[in-house]
Fold these 2 entries.
Entry 1:
Amino acid sequence: MPVFRPRGAVSFDRRNLTWKGVEAVSVLTLDGRTLVPVKMGDWQKVQFRNVRGEFFLHYRRGRFYLVVVVEEPEPPLRRAEGVLGVDLGIVNLAVDSDGNIHKGDCVDQLRVRTERLKASLQRRGTKSARRHMRKVAGKESRFRKHMNHVISKELVARAKGTRRAIALEELEGVCSGRTVPRPQRRRQFSWAYRQLRRFITYKAKRAGVPVIPVPPQGTSRQCPRCRYEASGNRKSRVLFECRRCGLAGPADYIAAVNIAARAAVDRPIVPRSSVGGLVLPQGQAVLPER
Ligand SMILES: [Zn+2]
């Protein structure tokens, strides 16, 4: 038996909800039709052109929100002339195969601070402490969401500007071939990691940039130059060093290059950065003399 909360969301369609321009909406209530004024931002007004006949009324902390479903026409996918590989969340939030690093330092600092604060509030356990805790958690997730928007926007713009597709690792189940060190496991499977992935995917779609999923197995253990794969290639959490040919670099950058190369192999796309001439981010990597 389904259980309904007294203030759960209510869904509407065109039979019981009609729009009066973008200024007001007429809703069928238990007391008959009620005209409710609506406030809409400029961006929402533009989007409103693509409105569909589905609406949800939410009640949250003393306010009513009307969720409007819009259908956005998708531009046709462009033909990609290369691949931008993106590795998410090993050490940094995102690193691409061009060597651009999106650190998560400030996010991490905030998370650590938040967690400490939450723990101390939890110990206190009072009603006001709980309320404070909710507030703190909300602040953290809004900040992370904002960061994810910024990062995904940049990545998609870079791919679009260089007419490349974006390659990402497939979302993996809990039993995966890629061993993730403990502190990272949390991040790998966290909602924020999935959110960033989701943002990249939908922004890419919107921009007509193809997204190519790549199997994640071994992307951080294989050498992009000589193809030698071994867990020993991972010198540490952050550093990759090939045991056979000596190629070294930041582990997440190496993974991003591998991801790009795999996507290019799967599809008839020539990868842009040839593996021999890895351009490594400044001051982070050493290419040994051969
Ligand atoms: Zn190698």
Note: The pocket of zinc ion is lined by residues 223, 225-226, 228, 242, 244-245, 247 (CB under 6 Å).
Entry 2:
Amino acid sequence: VGSTALSAPNLADGPLVYIMNTCAVTAEATREAVKQIRRIKAKEPLATVVVTGCGAQVDGAVYDGLPGADLVVANSHKGQLSELLDRHFRGEIPPHAKVFRSNIFRKEDLEPGGGEESGHVRSFLKIQDGCNSFCTFCVIPFARGKSRSLSRSELVRRVQELRRAGVQEIVLTGVHIGDYEDGEGAGLDALVGEILEKTDVPRLRLTSLEPIELTQPLMRHFQNPRLCPHFHMSIQSANTKTLSAMRRNYTAEDVERALNWISADVPGAFVGMDVIAGFPGETEDDFLDTYQRLDRLPWSRLHVFPYSERPGTRAVSLPDSVPRPVRAARAQRLRELSSHRLEASAAGQIGQVKMGLVVKQKEDHLEAVTPDYWTVRLSRAGQPALERGEVAPLRITRWRGAERDRMDGFLEAEWI
Ligand code: SF4
């Protein structure tokens, strides 16, 4: 999450363009983007700075008048970015007309995204954009608009194309993939079924889902070993009162049901979850309800965020704001719970045999990813000469826990 600055190497080589793909999800992301724009302009006064992304869509008050922003291309116009840059360099866009933004809720189409990278053995494929939920803490629907999806036939075609380019694993992404609807009433389960049936992609992986988006037909596909046993559950809380204040349309019991279901039907699956600590109105008892419920349920890792006010969202005006130190302390307790759970899950992997997809080749080791999303390192000494993109069985030998320079730790293994 943040801003990406791309640049040509040297001003003497030609025009220098920075594209700031801004995030709007927290106020901090906006502050950081502004700081970067100012820094670039101070260092490269002749460079062209284009501000695009979600910030350009929802934070016009911040970017439109910012002296360093030469072009502001909101998500509504992102598809025209290269054409607008051409016009800018031909001198056709006067400074007073530098902002390109329209009502995102009127946007009906989807820019191609994901699946375009070459030379990757794992590729992201964007299946939809936008979101039809309006969670009280989130600005995304205002930045991305209503949910729009690509058709199943188009996505099958893109998967086949990626396969021809040598991609071994495809990750289906979007702003809210549970909202996927192909225009003929078919949802995510139908798309997954069709990709598994009509393509030979060896590995298909899903990104964030909400508990009630785990449906029987979708869960059935996890019996197919090509659909990776890896879930990212966007739960945010496991307390019904807090979920209701967030306007999430499921309860703590739904969270419980979903996690128990995964554990029973897809044993050994890796389950990561997003949780917000210290949402407005969350009392110590509400927090303990989340903590204790999570403590007794099956999952592998939490991504914990202390609640942070995002201007322009309804949550900012909710009563009973939780003091920041309390948010931080609750987040810390959840992180400790997560770290113990991850250690225990990792210890349970030792001795297991898994298929590793080689994703990186370093001088002294290879890095592979397993279907259940463990990162595995293998020493190159005495090992067969495997290339990126190859898949081979490996036996897990050791867990190297998280340290300062690696947040999540990794497993070590040997090829068999
Ligand atoms: S479902 Fe996700 S993207 Fe949509 S409003 Fe809620 S948090 Fe934001």
Note: Residues 27 and 311 are 7 Å apart (CA to CA).
